[in-house]
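We emphasize that the prediction below concerns an isolated chain of 900 residues; any contacts that depend on oligomerization or on bound cofactors are therefore not represented. The input was used exactly as deposited, without trimming of termini.
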Amino acid sequence: MRSAAGSRGSLVGRSVELKVLHELTGEAQAGRGGALVVRGEAGIGKSTLLAHARDAASGVRVIHVAGAEFERELPYSALHQLCVPVLGHLADLPPRHADALRIAFGLAKGTPDLFHIGVATLGLLAAAARVRPLLCVVDDAHWLDAASARALTFVGRRVANEPIAMVFALRSPASDELHELPGLDLTGLTDAEARTVLAGRRHLVLDEQVLSRLLAEARGNPLALLELPEAGGFGPPDTSPVPTRIERSFRDRLSALPDDARLLLTAASADPTGDATLVWPAAQLLGIDVPAASAGVAATGLVEFAADIRFCHPLARSAVYRAASARERQRAHRALAEATNAGTDPDRRAWHRAQATVGPDDDVAAELVRSATRARSRGGVVAAAAFLERAAELSLDPAGRLERTFAAAQAALVAGRPDRAAILVRAVEHTGLDEFQLAHADLLRGQVAFQSHRDESGPEFMIHAGRRLAGLDPERARRCFLDAIETSLLVGRASGVLDLVLAAVRSVPATASRPPDVLDALGLLNSAGHRSAIPLIRQVLDGRHGSGRPGWIEHPALALMLAAEIWDPHRYAAIVEWLVRTGRESGSPLLLRLGLAQAGSYGALTADPGLAMASIAEEEAIADAIGGPPMPYHRIHLAALRGRRAEALALFEKATVAATTSGSGLLTGNIDWASAVLFNGLADYPAALAAARRAVADGTLFLASFSLPELVEAAVRCGDSEAASSALESLVERADASGTATGLGIAAYARGLVTGSEEQYRTAVAHLERSPLSAYRARAHLVYGEWLRREGRRRDCRAHLRTAHRLLSEAGFEAFARRAAVELRASGERPRQRSPHTYDQLTIQELHIARLVAAGATSGEVAAQLFISPRTVDTHLRNIFRKLGINSRRQLRHRSDLGA
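Result of the prediction step, given as a token string:
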């Protein structure tokens, strides 16, 4: 097979790039792994460069896979092919990780553990690399299936402490999952290098004029330099893109081939695996004279027949497939489907059958639905959507076609493709839908609008769906209404939507046996206020289904908001604990991430920064493992209380960009509340007042209530008595009605600020001593002490200021602690200097690892929880020991300041 840039022994113009790849492999052999993505246009020499690097690598084991355009819909297909040579090391993995890979690869049945695929792959490759350093070569990465790309990106970011080098080749321009990995851009050869490539083709003689034009048109593209001279240089100048001209040159080679040879090439191009044991039987089924046809094909140089069938370049495969007629492609796919083992590879067989089918075929459609189910179970939501869409196209029965179209649209939404889902819904909206089907279409439109625009149209469609379903399926109608409320909270338009929902819900027939739910609680809260609604809210939060599961299980975010709205930290903590425990046990990343995010916020408010930082670290690790952004809320809340102005404002600015981009009103409201807390701590009361006003005006469930104390304090300090009194009135109505120590304490705290009543300050301190929210307890001591000092009672103020300073300093709430220190000095007392705390010395991830190890976890257990390798855990531990001045796990377990 010809090289895209001369012979393998004399790669022209790539010495710098080869050196980079050689150094990458050398570093991996020394235990310092890394990943590199080589990017460039088609034909620029990526595959050839990787082949040279692979051939030149010594002392390492090489495993290789090439992405295939026709396999992009099969989840984990590329990852499976890459890992086949090292699957013997599955026995070295924890059982949960080994099972996750077996199920993902279709080697075992069971419930998939999707968010452990990445760390399981890392463990598998690391186990193989312990025997011999590993070089993983992934060519044509732009054609990887999404699940494989996500897993390999995850691994690529974590091999720094492993003897593993990973090299990817990716065509540009292209959006890709690999953008976070280090990159190397491959550009065109210089004219001198291009001339050297052409000089190596001894049979080629071109005059200088033709040569100059050829160099100009090839633009330094090595494959173009090898393919385009065949035209001789005479003819009109060609300004089309270089890859297009290269593909055209490949097609030109096909024109002289006999029919059998062309059909054999078509069959080879239609099978993405290059499996000769599949293509040869398919060729025989097509009636091809295989020896004669393969000899003719080999002479073109387009393909190499060996144990695997390899095209000289991906563009060659594409050119062959596109050059075939529709009938030839269908014949090839039909033969490949017949030759594929239905028992061991049912999805590839279904895919080939679908490509071979022209008109409706319910049998093929049903096979595609089964493939979609398998794909979804392995986390291949993109594949599931594609299978279902094709199944709908092939369905003969109108009802089945509609059902599969809706299912395809839902799968497209899950896969993050609202544009595709919208097209599918529009395709059926004028096909005579009944009311139930129209409701389903409205619900899908709402979900599309929410994903695409984050505007009020999403909740409106969901409400419309609920109205349609009210008389047909009351329970499903209520779920639509709750979806509308939850969506509107995220968008930031909850108050108007709640009014619409409550008006619509009156049309839903009452069900005597139905226990009260979140919708009932929200309705009563909105219509009758806190004092009337709180008993029902508590009943809903405490309620259980017959199975023992919480009654709010389908809407845990709303349950958390209701618990916060009624100032009930104990019920809030119970919901968080359930989410974290159930998320771990069930392997649900959604539940676990939500629980960890709220645990982080709870840790901040309970003045337990160790818990907050550990929750942040674990949630970020899970987000990274499943390929999504981390939740920002708990990080924002902790930054506000820690009071480091520059650090917090930078975080708020980044979150504001994310909120604006995604249309998240809930995130915007959280930023406003956190800003009010930050600026109150910094004694920048005008800024705190402005932020608190925005948060309260937003009206979002729980955020407005939690922002009212900030508004009261800022308004009092700014001398705005009208704003302070108005905010106090709203706060007292909500907090007093709660009857909790937290609510009563915060109401008294705010009354003390507005009225200057010492009795209210004392009441606040007494109540908040019984609240787990220590941040508010510390702040109550602070404002009481500040008031006492301003009253001239210097001796009395010191005890409260001293307590506030100790609690705030121990929690690392620096800005509020400085306020206490300033007041202590003004009272004539010098505040004690705080010793550096563990969480000041360690990163967020190091603190989490330290807490886990201090609690008795092994390196392997920590690695599994944080989705990193045990070697990486050990590297972190060495850093932790150095920073803390210790040298053993036993000493770490005896640290009293870890809060483990």
